[in-house]
Amino acid sequence: MVSGDTCVCDGVRTLAAGADVIVHEALLAARVSPALLTWNASAESVGELAALTQPTTLVLTHLIPAPVTNDDESAYVVDVRRGGFDGDTVVARDLTTIHVTPPDR
Fold first, then answer.
1. Rg (CA), the chain
2. What pLDDT score was predicted for residue 105?
3. Amino acid 21: pLDDT
4. Is the Cβ–Cβ distance between 29 and 44 less than 8 Å?
């Protein structure tokens, strides 16, 4: 499920239910203006979404602020964990590739 540029809401929760992979934008709430969080998702709220829906992989995209160092990237994962998701989490960079195994039919 790809969220696009939005906050976590009931519609996103519905679309994410049963998804193997969730691709969602994420902001570091402590490092952005609170006004941005009215229509964008904090990494912690994305972690809450993933904890609820249990995807195999969570991919964070459209990152604000853009990570520059490994510590910056780790801060996103820390916030996801704070939201309750402890599964595979990818902090995406340009051209990141995620391999997905199709379900057996």
1. 13
2. 65
3. 96
4. yes
What tokens appear for 81 in the block? Answer: 């964990």
Place of tokens 């964990």: 81
Tokens coding 89:
């989490």
Within 1-105, strands assigned E span 21-27, 57-64, 88-91
Question: What pLDDT score was predicted for residue 87?
Answer: 97
The total number of residues written for the chain in this structure = 105
Residue 69 has pLDDT above 80, yes or no: yes
Q: Which pTM was predicted? A: 0.94
For the record, the structure tokens of 1 come out as: 């499920």
Contacts of 2 (CB under 8 A, 6+ apart): 23, 24
d(CA 17, CA 74): 26
